[in-house]
Structure to design on (233 residues):
């Protein structure tokens, strides 16, 4: 195990313990000597990890520490490269630009050997079907989801019937050929999916919807599970 991987494992172990844990227990969990553990804790503290404690008392990692990019494994580097390339090719323009920018920032702070691995990654995104053009700005949909605010939509269904909807948007799904907004529809009183290329107008309302986004997402997933279970019986 490399030193970077060992430090990564130590951070993972510390995150699992919400209360101070002794150095001996930490050393046993990651399989190192107590002396090596103390050196690793000092290294992480020097890199900005808020690890509080001392020998004989125990250690605890305070929230808010971001893992340094140098801690990425080679497979994590490949995953970052592949994911960013997919977003750059298959998401909307603003997300694509953000993906390329994020990859450039990550590359800038990587050690030379990992930077070379990132830039030379041979995992590529193949060509896919054209995604239908959208009338509305997808960034508006993402803002509504982040801020948990209602949207007023002018939407046409598969038969081209136009309707006005007020929805509580909580997710945006990306498929090979379409993008789908998922939300609670006040008109139908149920969860509904809306193809973004069929949304003709979208207005962000001041009103926040009455449930938290994560609660809606969980309820939707539970409902999807019940549908799948019923289909399998």
């Amino acid at each position: 195990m490399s030193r970077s991987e060992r430090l990564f494992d130590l951070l993972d172990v510390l995150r699992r313990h919400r209360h101070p844990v002794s150095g001996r227990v930490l050393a046993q969990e990651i399989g190192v000597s107590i002396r090596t553990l103390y050196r690793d804790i000092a290294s992480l503290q020097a890199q900005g990890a808020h690890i509080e404690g001392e020998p004989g008392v125990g250690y605890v990692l305070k929230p808010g520490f971001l893992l340094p990019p140098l801690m990425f494994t080679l497979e994590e580097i490949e995953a970052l490269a592949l994911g960013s390339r997919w977003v750059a090719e298959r998401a909307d323009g603003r997300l694509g630009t953000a993906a390329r920018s994020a990859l450039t920032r990550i590359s800038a702070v990587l050690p030379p050997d990992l930077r070379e691995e990132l830039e030379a990654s041979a995992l590529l995104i193949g060509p896919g079907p054209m995604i239908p053009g959208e009338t509305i700005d997808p960034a508006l949909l993402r803002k509504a989801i982040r801020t948990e605010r209602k949207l007023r939509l002018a939407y046409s269904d598969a038969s081209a019937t136009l309707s006005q909807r007020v929805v509580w948007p909580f997710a945006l799904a990306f498929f090979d050929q379409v993008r789908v907004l998922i939300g609670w529809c006040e008109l139908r009183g149920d969860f509904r999916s809306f193809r973004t290329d069929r949304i003709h107008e979208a207005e962000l309302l001041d009103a926040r919807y009455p449930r938290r986004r994560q609660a809606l997402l969980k309820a939707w997933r539970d409902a999807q599970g019940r549908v799948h279970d019923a289909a399998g019986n």
Q: What stands out?
A: The longest strand covers residues 162-174. The chain has a mean pLDDT of 87. The chain is about 45% helix and 20% strand. The longest helix spans residues 213-232.
